[in-house]
Design goal:
single chain; alpha/beta; 8-stranded mixed sheet; 6-stranded mixed sheet; 20 strands; globular
Length: 392
Amino acid sequence: MTVAGARETSLPPMAECVVIGGGVIGVSCAFRLAEAGVDVLLLERGGLGEGSTAKAAGGIRSSFTSRVNVELGLRGLEGYSAFSERFGTQIDFRRDGYLYLLTDPADVTAIGQCAELQREYGVRSHLLDPAEARDVLPLIETDGIVAALWSPDDAKATPDAVVRGYARAARACGATLRTGVEVTGIERDGDTLTGVDTTEGFVRTGAVVCAAGAWSGRIGELAGLDLPVRPFRRQVVFTGPVPGLPERVPLTIELPSAFYFHREGAGLAMSFSEDDGFPGFDGHYEAGEWLPRLAGLAGRRIPAVLDAGVRTAWAGLYEMTPDRNQIIGESVLLSRFFYATGFSGHGFQMAPATGELIRDLYLGRPASVDITELDVRRFGRADTAPAERHIV
C-alpha cells in the first residue's frame, strides 16, 4: 500500500524552503521545518511514499557498526515507539528484535567489538552461540553458523503509515505538499540559490532540501553539485503461509551472504543483496538466476519455507553511496542547499532523526547528533570513516 492523495497542481510563487522528495525522509523534514515555523513547500513527482519508501522492509534498529549510525538508530527507535500517540497514526510498531547469523569465523571478533560499541549507548546487543540463536528463533537451521548477534530491542513498523502521519502533521503545521510535480531545474545566482523550476512553473526560494532518495544524484546535477548517490535494484519475495511460523520472528540477517527474512502475515519476506553491478533506475522484478539463489539460501537456513511457495514479489531501488553511509549536511558550494540522502537501505529507520537534523541545520541550531562525518565532502578525502558493516 502506498500513500496517495488528490493531485494539486497550483504552486505558491515562493516558499522559504522547498523540500524535494515525498518519501519518508522528505515528509519528516517537511514536518520538522513547518513545526519550527518555516514556510515549507514539498514537491514529489509521484505520490507521497510511492518511491523507495513503499518498498522498504520497515526495520528500525540501533545495531549498527559506527557511533553516528547507532545514535541515529536509537533516535529512530525512540521516535517510532511514540509515533502512534504523537501523530495519531497506527504504524504497527513491534519490538521483535534483529538477529544476525554469522557464518564466517573471521567476522566474530569484529562483530563482537561492534556489540561493545552498541552497549556503550545502552543497546542490549550481545553475542550468542548457535544453540542460543536457535532458542531465539527455532525456525532456523544452525549448520554453518559460528555465532550470532542478538539485538532484542530493535523493531519494525509500517512505512506507508509513517508517511501518512508525517504528511498530515506537516500540513497541520502549515506546510504545502504537492504531488505529481517534478523539479526540472534549480536556479542560482553565483553561489546563492534563487529558486526551482518545475513541471508546474517556477517557485522562488532561498533554500532547498534534497531528499530525493535514489534520484538525488540528478537533483545534485541540477544544482551543479556532486551528490554521489546511485540507484541499485533490490528484490524481495513474499511467501505463502509457513508451517510452524512463530508469532515473533526477528528481522534475521545472515552474514556475509546478506540473506535476510522477516515475518509478513502468515509467511515471510525474503531477500539477499547481490553485488551491486551497474547502477540504474530499472525497478522491475526479474526472477532470472536470482530466485534460485534465494531459494538455495532459504532452504539451507529455514527449510520450512520451501513448502510455502512464492505469493508475490517486487523490486525497488536502494540509494547507495560509496561507503554505504548516508550524506546529511549543507553544501559549502551553494548557499542553503541541504541534503539528506544516500541512506543505503537505512532511510526509514533514520527518518525521525533526519528531520530533526535538517531542521537544526536550517535554523543554525546545535545538532543533537554530531554528523560531521556524514558531510558529502568526505568522499574527497583519504581519511573517510569505515563503511557500515551491517548492510541489508
